[in-house]
Amino acid sequence: MISNTIILPVLMHMLIAVLLIFFWRNVKAQKIISVAGNLLVLGLGIEIFMLTWNNGIQTTQAGAWRAPFGITFVADVFSSSMVLLTAIAGTAVGLFSTVGIRRERMKYGYFPIYHFLLMGLNGAFLTGDIFNLFVWFEIIIIASFVLMTLGGRRLQIGAGIKYVTINLLASVIFLTAIGILYGLTGSLNMADLSLKIAAIENRGLVNVTAMLFFTSFGIKSAVFPLYFWLPASYHTPPSAITAIFGGLLTKVGVYALIRTFTLIFVPDAFTTNVLLVVATGTLLTGALGALVKKDIRKLFSYLIVCHIGYMIAGLGMFTEIAIVGTLFYLFHDMMAKTNLFLITGLMTKIRGSGYYKDTGGLYKDYPRLSLIIAIVFFSVVGVPPLSGFWPKIYLFQAGLGTGSYILLGAMIIASFITLYVMAKCWSEMFWKPQPEENKKEPDNFSKMNRWDKTWMVGPIIMLAFISLYIGLGAEKIMMVSKHIAGELMDTGPYIKAVLGK
Amino acid sequence: MKTIILKVASNYLLPLLLLFSVFILLRGHYEPGGGFVGGLIASIAFVLHAFANGLKTTQKFLKYHPGVAIPIGLGLSLFAGLLPMFAGLPFMKSLFFSQPLPVIGTISTALVFDIGVYLVVVGVTLTILFTISETVND
Questions:
Q1: B108 lies within 8 A of chain A by CB
Q2: What is this model's ipTM?
Q3: I want to staple A379 with a disulfide (CB 3.0 to 4.6 A). Which of A204, A327, A386, A395 is the partner?
Q4: Which helix or strand (DSSP H or E) is residue B61 part of?
Q5: What is the pLDDT of residue B6?
Q6: Mean pLDDT estimate for chain B
């Protein structure tokens, strides 16, 4: 089915960004345009999701150059649900930013760059061309690099250098892999590649290319042993920026992994083994890293790494149940991680410190807010019936089914460590009485006016309720995940939609 | 670099180079050239002018901050891409005027896109170079 609508989430963000540049110095106008634009894209996201859910895969050929020669944009249910979740997270963080980001940062183009970043994310989810995917990744890197260093504090610049160096390296590897792939097949269209790669005799070369792609996407999605840049850089920018990074940037790497390893390189025994080893390593090292960190933002950064492991594990086991688990986890994680970092922003605002040892007594001062935050914390842990619980059932079931017992062990250990870490955060920050030294720190939150408070807490509540919905309405999410897993395992309709044969 | 030869030459070179950049821009549809190269040539013209006459003079000559060209260019390019979508065609499909114009030839939305690129390149290059020379001079 051909539909022009599917490209609109990309174009709309660009339009908003261009508009915002016109209002470069007018911060108030920027806030209004940004929030309105985000809501518009959210509406578009819902429309596209309904369109693909009801009518199947939608495509459009940019410039009317036919596939496999032109650039195809494809929206299947997987892409469109990623676009929808990005729009939800984008709206929440956009709202939070209106209060959570300093005025000076806004004057130097925070909002335009933010929308360019969202444009890059939507583009990466919707493209059906592997080189175009590379281009969207570049847009994401450039935008995120600017966001990371905006403000120019020494700590930020240092982190930014680490971030950009390793990500550029990943891009070089990605580009090399695309070059080899083009040399092998003479095509860049993913649907076309799917057919051509399957017909190649020299499987060794195909596997090498697949590993190059895996390395590149692995760096971007922060898997073991290539994750070290993430905890080294994610704690430096303001919380709103980290929220969008933690919630969406690593997930776009996971999306690219899932897409290429189901469509182009269907995993053989070698690839699945590599994926499983990497998943085990990611789960364990991420969890152990989280165990020793005292700064909550660093701690949550390690949790991002740890939980990426679950998604890679599902992909590595490569059965339909495992893929369902991966997808469900991906959806849950995007919402929960975005929210976790927004919460750190709020808590730092209230207590003036990001170290959990120094703070405390939040439950006493803000009981209702604490209850909302508890939902998010225990969603991340996966306490039934909250959202982290359901995908784990599927992943454990798949682990038992495929006999990957070491991985299963790693998943269970990672779950327990997550539980321990989150419980410790909860008891230190919320239950423990506030330490005397910390009482001297100014409470910047209670000084804000009513509207500003609403903009700060509103997004957190919104995302918490979505997390709650993912947990309590798990049946619906499961239905979507199963549908997507079916699409991913049987690539026939995708290829037919793109190539028309 | 305050030499009289460069100063006089740059005054003549500025319009010539700008004209050449427009030529390259228009040529780009079927032959080598286009908005990107044209934009670079145009910015070289202004940089040369700044070299000879000092940054202040060039900035006064330009009247507006070169960064203004960035959103205008981006907007033009986006508009050129969006235009066919109103007719129900895919994004970025090139639309042609049915009648060729004198001198320029047939105009298409691809030209509008290229003009947008031209403006963005001029805006970005000049903003970067002017900012760097300002910080060096300070």
A1: no
A2: 0.90
A3: A386
A4: helix B55-62
A5: 87
A6: 88
Contact check, Cβ <8 Å, A62/B90 = yes
Which residues of B are less than 8 Å from A73 in CB distance? 91
Number of domains comprising chain A: 1
Q: pLDDT digits over A256-277, tens only?
A: 999 999 999 988 889 999 999 9
Q: Percent of chain A scored above 90 by pLDDT?
A: 70
Q: CB of A309 within 8 A of CB of A221?
A: no
Residue A462 has pLDDT above 70, yes or no: yes
Task: Over range A18-23, report the average pLDDT.
Answer: 92
Give which of A302, A268, A307, A267 is closest to A288, Cα–Cα: A302
Q: Specify the number of domains making up chain B.
A: 1
From A54-63, A442-451, B40-49, the region with the lowest mean pLDDT: A442-451
Among B64, B72, B91, B95, most A C-beta atoms within 10 A, so best to mutate, is B91
Average pLDDT score over residue span A30-39: 95
Domain extent at residue B35: 4-137
Which pair of structure tokens corresponds to residue A347?
Answer: 């808590």
Give the residue from A1, A2, A3, A4 with the most B CB atoms within 10 Å of its CB, the best one to mutate. Answer: A4
Judge whether residue A38 has pLDDT over 70: yes
3-class SS of residue A288: helix
B100 and chain A in contact, CB less than 8 A: no
Query: Could A63 and B75 be called an inter-chain contact, meaning their C-beta atoms sit closer than 8 Å?
Result: no
**How does pLDDT run across A45-75, given as a tens digit for each residue?**
999 999 999 999 999 998 888 888 889 999 9
Q: Quick check: B81 and A61 CB within 8 A?
A: no
| DSSP, res B89 | P
Between chains, do A18 and B78 touch, taking CB under 8 Å as contact? yes
In the predicted model, is pLDDT for residue A12 greater than 70? yes
A153 backbone dihedrals φ, ψ, rounded to 5°? -70, 155
DSSP A211-257: HHHHHHHHHHHT-TTS-THHHHHTTSS-HHHHHHIIIIIHHHHHHHH
CA-only gyration radius of chain A, Å: 22
B110: phi then psi, degrees, rounded to nearest 5: -60, -35
Place of tokens 């900012």: B131
Interface of A with B (CB under 8 A): 2, 4, 7, 11, 14-15, 17-19, 21-22, 24, 60-64, 73
Q: Which uninterrupted H or E stretch holds B16?
A: helix B4-27
A364/chain B closest Cα distance in angstroms? 49
Helix axes A405-426, A389-402, angle to 10 degrees: 160
Residue B138 has pLDDT above 70, yes or no: no
Instruction: Identify the domain containing residue A20 by its residue range.
Output: 4-499
Burial of A391 (0-12, 13-18, 19+ CB in 10 A): buried
